[in-house]
Amino acid sequence: MINKAPIGVFDSGVGGLTVVKEIMNQIPGEDIIYFGDTARLPYGSKSKKTVITYTRQIVRFLMNKDIKAIVIACNTASAFALETVKSEVDIPVIGVVKPGAKLAASTTQNGRIGIIGTEGTIQSGIYSEFLREINPKIKVYGKACPLFVPLVEEGLADDSVTFEMAKRYIGLLLEKHIDTLVLGCTHYPLLRETIRKVVGEDIVLVNPAYETAKALLDVLRDQGLRNDSTPKLNHKFYVSDGAEKFRQFANTILPCEVMETKDINIEELG
Known about the structure:
Elements: E1 7-11, H1 17-26, E2 32-36, H2 48-63, E3 69-72, H3 75-88, E4 93-94, H4 97-107, E5 112-117, H5 119-124, H6 126-134, E6 139-144, H7 148-153, H8 160-174, E7 180-184, H9 192-199, E8 204-206, H10 208-222, E9 236-239, H11 243-250, E10 261-263
Parallel strand pairs: 1-2, 1-3, 2-9, 3-4, 5-6, 5-7, 7-8, 9-10
Helix pairs in contact: 1-10, 2-3, 4-6, 4-10, 8-9
């Protein structure tokens, strides 16, 4: 039955595991098929055309796994390719941007929100667009942080170099007197402790991964796709490069053990 089918989740690398973790915690009993495009990251510096091409390839791969829903656990792909994917498949597709924007809008007290993300996400202006739809009075300040993704992928989240870069990037936003900061890339929650040291305790950090899992649960319930049985879970993980490195990293994040990760040449699949 379709409600027992898995959920497809993808990202440019390991960052999407922050979304997977929230799905596992909030929606237990659902199988997940994850694809991390580790060979072609980061997406944030790629053109919209290229990100759409990559997204279509990955969606085709996931659809061949008979999934019942897709979560685009990448802010850049959500910004550039979400509407394209929605128009091309007949299952629910959820991005990470809108859930994060909704939470930020309901959180801010002074109406000044900072967004950190990849170059693609910031330049797209998609967070500003959603936030101003919710409340036109909100002021949004964006800052691209292009080095954050490679630093996370290299396992340097707690390194002094990462802290120095965070001070340089986020310091510009602090000058705008923001009271809310959106972690607008799914890699960035993995830098949460470093970012907290930079911004202090008074600024609220918004992690869209948590809200994305909530949005997914709502969609599954509304469309009768929730798996309410208690099956033996069968999560599967695929990457386009570095399977063993990914598996080891995943086991430091997820609440379950990842026994195997498979390498897939996504370009060969069309």
